Amino acid sequence: MAKKLMDIPEFDHSLRLSSQSVEELGINVYEMLQNPDPTQYQNNILNCMLAITSIQIAFTDILYKMEVIPDGIIGHSLGEMSCDYADGALTREQTMKLAYYIGAAIMNNAFPSKGGMAVVGLTWDEANKRCPEGIVPACHNGQYSVTVSGSADKIKEFCDQLLKEDVIAKPVDSSGIPFHSPDMLKIYDAMLINMRKAVADPRPRSSKWISTAIPEEKWNEDKALFCSADYYANYACSPVLFYEALQKIPPDAIMIEIAPHCLMQEILRKNLPKACTNIGLRLMHSMKEMLMQIVKDVHVKFIDMELEQVGSDSLVALFLDKSELMIVAILGVWKSGAAYVPIDPNYPDQRVQFILNDTKASIIISNQHHNEQLNRIMQKGNLSPMNIQIDNLELNNGSKTRIMNNCMNADPTNLAYVIYTSGSTSLPKGVLIEHGTVISFYNSISSLYFKTTENSSPEYEQHQEAILFLSNYTFDMSIIQLIISILNGNKLIILPNNMTFGDSDSYNYVNDHGLSIVTGTPSQLLNIDFGRLPRLNILATGGELLQKFHVDYFRQNFCGLVMNIQ
After folding, report:
1. Cys bridge to 80: 75, 197, 227, 366, which one at CB 3.0-4.6 A?
2. In what order do the strands lie in the sheet with 135-142?
3. Entry's SUPFAM superfamilies (predicted)?
């Protein structure tokens, strides 16, 4: 599960410490996480809880090391156990042992019948009215999202009925456990006795930690004020009031979801204030320590600069090679409220100078090795924008700056990016693309062709789409690749600089990262050896005319979905 991130020293170290904290109980969590066999988690809630908790602790450790200190903490279901660690109420050892003891209590005490859970597209009130006997609303996820819990057979019957009414109803793999339902009261005493071995003495919870276990009107009671075995035993048997907790989040907050798969992203996007910045921190094959450090550097740099001049409809020029840094720069510009202007470093000097003159961009974000070229262009054109070399950003270790990159509340009519035409018949012209256009385009194709948490099957929880960033970022096709990956929580694959797609090594590279979607012009896609891409299931073409011989070739060589985006 977490093996791909163990090459990050801090992540690996945290996992080892968490594993050591429960070794005396006869279980090796680190060894379990190294084992790619998914069957070790099937119908084994103990292994699931230990794995998830150790991963959440590791991500928390990394965020704190990056000085990303939360102003608020919210847990959803089992995630409430990691809140105590993030809050500082409990130690790593106590948190891991809590996960062990609650998991062991569940494994060692049989339920009268198999339990089940499902996510349904109902309001909380509707779910309370419609749930038949044997089923209860268990998690208030969002305004129109509720997880119900109870008898597995009755859950299936209820889902079948809702599906006939065209209401979303998707089973959740809970290992046969009816979490957050009255059925859990049957093992309440066993859980309480076990968990008191981990937390003998209650510890105060800080005001940062917004409880999803106890209604707000009871927050002043002792059970709510302290982190204790009683708190968690009660939580396992009580509804999750997640949506209620979301109402406490400030409208300009930055929300970071910490989870192996970040399955709450769709719910968070729909239920958080629009001005909130929502980030999913999940297990990703492409995540590297360098990228996390650069993300931090860019955020701090954008705050430390005098950004009064940058806001809605401001233009920031990008002069970057294709890499993770380019993605970080685009997101940094958007989060500042500005729009980006992509410039290919391979453009002739005259074209670069024209674009910089035409946009009057006051800031350029570039790679260090393009510095000589940029200085020559700016000197010749008498240009003086601020040049931020993204790969040269460093933090002042003594800085107390908070990493809270404020979003400037750009609305649908504000610019998202500006792309320049080739200028083959006349001077290049900037094409202005607004945020509303980008989102409308995303909405129009995503619900039909791309998997999201709402339109995917249950097995999608174990599978994330992987999209190749094939296009030059100066073309519109690049925005398809970017937003479909980011907004759907999918993986974006960027080839190393020394690799070209089509080379033998490139096929091995993208297959190792699970490539499943490729977008590009028909001419680009004709050069693909589809037989070497076993997981590829979607081709999306655009940017030039799709002709009959293109279609014939795709039909003969590719059996997946072909989209023509114009």
Report:
1. 75
2. 135-142, 145-151, 115-120, 169-172
3. Acetyl-CoA synthetase-like, FabD/lysophospholipase-like, Probable ACP-binding domain of malonyl-CoA ACP transacylase
